[in-house]
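Friendly challenge for the regulars: who can give me the C-alpha coordinates for this chain first? No prize, just bragging rights.
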Amino acid sequence: MSLSARSRRLAAAAAAVSAVAGMCLAVPAQAQASSALNYVAMGDSYSAGSGVLPLDLSAPLECARSAVNYPHDLASRLGLDLTDVTCGGAKTQDYAGSQYPGVAPQLDALNDSTDLVTMTIGGNDSNTFIDAVLACGSAGVVTLGFGHPCQSIYGDSFDNTIDTTTYQSLDATLAAVKAKAPNARIAIVGYPWIVPAQAVSGCFAKMPIASGDIPYLRDLEAHLNAAVQRAAADNGVTYVDMSAVSNGHDACEPASTRWIEPILFGTNYVPVHPNATGEAAMANQIAATLGLG
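First reply, four minutes later:
Bragging rights claimed.
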Protein backbone atom coordinates (compact mmCIF):
# COMPACT_ATOMS: atom_id res chain seq x y z
CA MET A 1 0.00 0.00 0.00
CA SER A 2 1.39 3.40 -0.93
CA LEU A 3 1.89 6.09 1.68
CA SER A 4 -0.77 8.25 0.09
CA ALA A 5 -3.30 5.38 0.06
CA ARG A 6 -2.54 4.60 3.70
CA SER A 7 -2.97 8.27 4.57
CA ARG A 8 -6.33 8.36 2.87
CA ARG A 9 -7.48 5.27 4.79
CA LEU A 10 -6.28 6.69 8.09
CA ALA A 11 -8.05 9.97 7.36
CA ALA A 12 -11.27 8.12 6.50
CA ALA A 13 -11.04 6.04 9.68
CA ALA A 14 -10.43 9.16 11.77
CA ALA A 15 -13.44 10.86 10.21
CA ALA A 16 -15.62 7.84 10.98
CA VAL A 17 -14.46 7.74 14.61
CA SER A 18 -15.09 11.47 14.91
CA ALA A 19 -18.60 11.11 13.50
CA VAL A 20 -19.47 8.26 15.88
CA ALA A 21 -18.07 10.22 18.82
CA GLY A 22 -20.12 13.23 17.79
CA MET A 23 -23.27 11.11 17.70
CA CYS A 24 -22.50 9.68 21.14
CA LEU A 25 -22.01 13.14 22.54
CA ALA A 26 -25.23 14.39 20.95
CA VAL A 27 -27.46 11.68 22.41
CA PRO A 28 -27.08 12.65 26.08
CA ALA A 29 -27.67 16.32 25.25
CA GLN A 30 -30.82 15.40 23.36
CA ALA A 31 -31.99 13.12 26.14
CA GLN A 32 -31.33 15.85 28.69
CA ALA A 33 -33.38 18.36 26.70
CA SER A 34 -36.32 15.97 26.39
CA SER A 35 -36.20 15.09 30.11
CA ALA A 36 -37.12 18.62 31.26
CA LEU A 37 -40.33 18.55 33.28
CA ASN A 38 -43.38 19.98 31.54
CA TYR A 39 -44.43 22.71 33.96
CA VAL A 40 -47.72 24.61 33.69
CA ALA A 41 -48.20 27.68 35.87
CA MET A 42 -51.80 28.73 36.49
CA GLY A 43 -53.51 31.26 38.71
CA ASP A 44 -54.15 34.88 39.50
CA SER A 45 -52.05 38.02 39.95
CA TYR A 46 -50.05 36.56 42.85
CA SER A 47 -48.91 33.83 40.45
CA ALA A 48 -48.53 36.25 37.54
CA GLY A 49 -46.45 38.68 39.60
CA SER A 50 -48.68 41.54 38.49
CA GLY A 51 -47.02 44.84 39.25
CA VAL A 52 -43.45 43.56 39.04
CA LEU A 53 -41.37 44.73 36.08
CA PRO A 54 -40.28 43.71 33.51
CA LEU A 55 -43.44 42.46 31.89
CA ASP A 56 -43.60 39.11 30.14
CA LEU A 57 -44.03 40.37 26.59
CA SER A 58 -45.34 37.00 25.40
CA ALA A 59 -48.40 37.35 27.66
CA PRO A 60 -51.65 39.19 26.94
CA LEU A 61 -51.26 42.75 28.18
CA GLU A 62 -54.41 42.47 30.29
CA CYS A 63 -52.81 39.74 32.39
CA ALA A 64 -50.01 42.03 33.64
CA ARG A 65 -47.73 39.01 33.83
CA SER A 66 -44.19 39.58 35.07
CA ALA A 67 -41.12 38.01 33.49
CA VAL A 68 -39.80 37.41 37.02
CA ASN A 69 -42.90 35.89 38.63
CA TYR A 70 -42.47 32.76 40.72
CA PRO A 71 -43.17 30.39 37.79
CA HIS A 72 -40.35 31.95 35.76
CA ASP A 73 -38.09 31.84 38.80
CA LEU A 74 -38.81 28.15 39.38
CA ALA A 75 -38.42 27.25 35.71
CA SER A 76 -35.13 29.10 35.45
CA ARG A 77 -33.51 27.63 38.54
CA LEU A 78 -34.74 24.06 37.93
CA GLY A 79 -34.53 23.89 34.14
CA LEU A 80 -38.26 23.31 33.67
CA ASP A 81 -40.15 23.58 30.38
CA LEU A 82 -42.58 26.34 31.38
CA THR A 83 -46.01 27.09 29.98
CA ASP A 84 -47.21 30.16 31.90
CA VAL A 85 -50.92 30.96 31.68
CA THR A 86 -51.13 32.98 34.89
CA CYS A 87 -53.23 36.12 34.57
CA GLY A 88 -53.90 39.04 36.88
CA GLY A 89 -57.47 39.15 38.13
CA ALA A 90 -58.13 35.47 37.45
CA LYS A 91 -60.89 33.69 39.32
CA THR A 92 -61.51 29.96 39.48
CA GLN A 93 -64.13 30.40 36.74
CA ASP A 94 -61.37 31.51 34.36
CA TYR A 95 -59.86 28.02 34.42
CA ALA A 96 -62.73 26.66 32.34
CA GLY A 97 -63.73 29.90 30.60
CA SER A 98 -61.95 32.71 28.78
CA GLN A 99 -60.96 35.52 31.14
CA TYR A 100 -60.51 38.08 28.35
CA PRO A 101 -61.26 37.98 24.61
CA GLY A 102 -58.56 35.93 22.95
CA VAL A 103 -57.24 34.55 26.27
CA ALA A 104 -57.81 30.79 26.35
CA PRO A 105 -59.18 29.06 29.47
CA GLN A 106 -56.27 28.16 31.72
CA LEU A 107 -57.24 24.48 31.76
CA ASP A 108 -56.44 24.32 28.04
CA ALA A 109 -52.73 24.37 28.91
CA LEU A 110 -52.95 20.99 30.68
CA ASN A 111 -52.73 17.48 29.23
CA ASP A 112 -51.51 13.96 29.98
CA SER A 113 -47.87 14.99 29.51
CA THR A 114 -47.99 17.78 32.12
CA ASP A 115 -45.56 16.91 34.94
CA LEU A 116 -45.95 19.83 37.33
CA VAL A 117 -48.69 22.39 37.99
CA THR A 118 -48.58 25.34 40.39
CA MET A 119 -51.13 28.03 41.12
CA THR A 120 -52.34 30.69 43.51
CA ILE A 121 -56.08 31.15 43.13
CA GLY A 122 -59.24 31.91 45.10
CA GLY A 123 -58.58 35.42 46.38
CA ASN A 124 -60.56 37.05 43.57
CA ASP A 125 -63.57 34.75 43.77
CA SER A 126 -66.72 36.73 44.54
CA ASN A 127 -64.29 39.69 44.83
CA THR A 128 -64.09 38.72 48.50
CA PHE A 129 -60.56 39.66 49.39
CA ILE A 130 -60.12 42.71 47.18
CA ASP A 131 -63.51 44.00 48.36
CA ALA A 132 -62.41 43.54 51.96
CA VAL A 133 -59.14 45.44 51.44
CA LEU A 134 -60.92 48.29 49.66
CA ALA A 135 -63.76 48.41 52.17
CA CYS A 136 -61.44 48.41 55.16
CA GLY A 137 -59.22 51.04 53.56
CA SER A 138 -62.16 53.34 52.92
CA ALA A 139 -63.55 52.83 56.41
CA GLY A 140 -60.12 53.42 57.94
CA VAL A 141 -59.73 56.75 56.19
CA VAL A 142 -63.12 57.91 57.50
CA THR A 143 -62.17 57.12 61.11
CA LEU A 144 -58.58 58.40 60.69
CA GLY A 145 -57.25 54.96 61.61
CA PHE A 146 -59.12 54.50 64.89
CA GLY A 147 -61.44 51.67 65.90
CA HIS A 148 -62.56 48.75 63.74
CA PRO A 149 -65.16 50.25 61.40
CA CYS A 150 -64.75 47.58 58.73
CA GLN A 151 -65.40 44.75 61.15
CA SER A 152 -68.38 46.63 62.56
CA ILE A 153 -69.91 47.07 59.09
CA TYR A 154 -69.13 43.70 57.49
CA GLY A 155 -68.75 41.30 60.40
CA ASP A 156 -68.68 37.68 59.22
CA SER A 157 -69.90 38.40 55.69
CA PHE A 158 -66.52 37.91 54.00
CA ASP A 159 -65.84 34.71 55.94
CA ASN A 160 -69.30 33.42 55.08
CA THR A 161 -68.67 33.98 51.39
CA ILE A 162 -65.42 32.02 51.63
CA ASP A 163 -67.26 29.14 53.30
CA THR A 164 -70.32 29.09 51.06
CA THR A 165 -68.78 29.98 47.68
CA THR A 166 -64.99 30.17 47.51
CA TYR A 167 -64.25 26.78 49.04
CA GLN A 168 -66.70 24.99 46.72
CA SER A 169 -65.18 26.74 43.70
CA LEU A 170 -61.66 25.78 44.78
CA ASP A 171 -62.71 22.18 45.33
CA ALA A 172 -64.28 21.89 41.87
CA THR A 173 -61.36 23.70 40.24
CA LEU A 174 -58.70 21.42 41.72
CA ALA A 175 -60.72 18.37 40.67
CA ALA A 176 -60.80 19.75 37.10
CA VAL A 177 -57.04 20.35 37.13
CA LYS A 178 -56.41 16.77 38.27
CA ALA A 179 -58.69 15.42 35.54
CA LYS A 180 -56.88 17.40 32.83
CA ALA A 181 -53.38 16.61 34.14
CA PRO A 182 -53.69 13.12 35.68
CA ASN A 183 -49.93 12.50 35.75
CA ALA A 184 -48.86 15.82 37.24
CA ARG A 185 -47.74 16.88 40.68
CA ILE A 186 -50.07 19.73 41.58
CA ALA A 187 -49.39 22.44 44.14
CA ILE A 188 -51.61 25.31 45.22
CA VAL A 189 -49.86 28.14 47.05
CA GLY A 190 -51.35 30.00 49.99
CA TYR A 191 -51.32 33.79 50.07
CA PRO A 192 -48.44 35.42 52.00
CA TRP A 193 -49.43 37.76 54.81
CA ILE A 194 -50.61 41.17 53.64
CA VAL A 195 -50.88 42.78 57.08
CA PRO A 196 -49.30 41.96 60.46
CA ALA A 197 -51.16 40.26 63.31
CA GLN A 198 -51.62 43.60 65.10
CA ALA A 199 -51.41 47.26 64.10
CA VAL A 200 -47.89 48.66 64.11
CA SER A 201 -46.67 52.22 64.36
CA GLY A 202 -46.46 54.06 61.05
CA CYS A 203 -48.42 51.50 59.06
CA PHE A 204 -51.51 53.66 58.54
CA ALA A 205 -49.57 55.99 56.22
CA LYS A 206 -48.91 53.06 53.87
CA MET A 207 -51.94 50.89 54.59
CA PRO A 208 -54.82 53.24 55.55
CA ILE A 209 -56.68 50.61 57.55
CA ALA A 210 -57.97 51.30 61.06
CA SER A 211 -55.88 49.75 63.81
CA GLY A 212 -58.71 47.47 64.96
CA ASP A 213 -59.27 46.22 61.42
CA ILE A 214 -55.69 45.02 60.95
CA PRO A 215 -56.31 41.79 62.93
CA TYR A 216 -59.71 41.53 61.23
CA LEU A 217 -58.07 41.48 57.78
CA ARG A 218 -55.36 39.12 59.01
CA ASP A 219 -58.00 36.68 60.26
CA LEU A 220 -59.85 36.98 56.96
CA GLU A 221 -56.72 36.04 55.02
CA ALA A 222 -56.10 33.13 57.39
CA HIS A 223 -59.68 31.98 56.72
CA LEU A 224 -59.11 32.16 52.96
CA ASN A 225 -55.86 30.20 53.21
CA ALA A 226 -57.58 27.59 55.37
CA ALA A 227 -60.19 27.13 52.63
CA VAL A 228 -57.42 26.73 50.04
CA GLN A 229 -55.65 24.19 52.26
CA ARG A 230 -58.86 22.23 52.86
CA ALA A 231 -59.64 22.08 49.14
CA ALA A 232 -56.08 20.89 48.48
CA ALA A 233 -56.37 18.13 51.08
CA ASP A 234 -59.75 17.01 49.76
CA ASN A 235 -58.29 16.63 46.27
CA GLY A 236 -54.92 15.11 47.15
CA VAL A 237 -53.10 18.25 46.04
CA THR A 238 -50.04 19.72 47.76
CA TYR A 239 -50.65 22.88 49.75
CA VAL A 240 -47.72 25.29 49.90
CA ASP A 241 -48.04 27.14 53.20
CA MET A 242 -46.70 30.71 53.15
CA SER A 243 -47.88 31.61 56.66
CA ALA A 244 -44.73 31.01 58.71
CA VAL A 245 -42.18 32.14 56.13
CA SER A 246 -44.02 35.38 55.30
CA ASN A 247 -44.36 36.49 58.92
CA GLY A 248 -42.61 39.84 59.28
CA HIS A 249 -42.65 40.49 55.52
CA ASP A 250 -46.10 42.09 55.20
CA ALA A 251 -46.96 45.41 53.59
CA CYS A 252 -46.39 47.34 56.84
CA GLU A 253 -42.68 46.46 56.87
CA PRO A 254 -39.91 48.67 55.42
CA ALA A 255 -39.17 48.37 51.71
CA SER A 256 -36.06 46.33 52.40
CA THR A 257 -38.02 43.71 54.36
CA ARG A 258 -41.51 43.46 52.90
CA TRP A 259 -42.65 40.94 50.32
CA ILE A 260 -46.01 42.67 49.75
CA GLU A 261 -46.24 46.24 48.54
CA PRO A 262 -48.61 48.59 50.41
CA ILE A 263 -51.53 50.61 49.09
CA LEU A 264 -49.51 53.85 49.21
CA PHE A 265 -45.82 54.64 48.62
CA GLY A 266 -44.99 51.20 47.27
CA THR A 267 -42.69 50.22 44.42
CA ASN A 268 -45.13 48.10 42.35
CA TYR A 269 -47.57 49.63 39.90
CA VAL A 270 -50.14 47.16 41.32
CA PRO A 271 -50.44 47.68 45.10
CA VAL A 272 -51.11 45.01 47.75
CA HIS A 273 -49.27 42.41 45.67
CA PRO A 274 -45.93 40.64 46.00
CA ASN A 275 -42.81 42.47 44.88
CA ALA A 276 -39.92 40.68 43.16
CA THR A 277 -38.55 39.52 46.50
CA GLY A 278 -41.96 38.14 47.44
CA GLU A 279 -42.25 36.24 44.15
CA ALA A 280 -38.79 34.73 44.71
CA ALA A 281 -39.81 33.76 48.26
CA MET A 282 -42.88 31.97 46.91
CA ALA A 283 -40.68 30.11 44.45
CA ASN A 284 -38.38 29.12 47.33
CA GLN A 285 -41.27 27.78 49.38
CA ILE A 286 -42.72 25.80 46.45
CA ALA A 287 -39.33 24.22 45.74
CA ALA A 288 -38.83 23.37 49.42
CA THR A 289 -42.33 21.93 49.86
CA LEU A 290 -42.10 19.78 46.74
CA GLY A 291 -38.47 18.81 47.36
CA LEU A 292 -37.30 20.31 44.08
CA GLY A 293 -33.81 21.65 43.54
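Residues 1-33 have pLDDT under 50 and may be disordered. The CA atoms of residues 4 and 10 lie 10 Å apart. Your move, everyone else.
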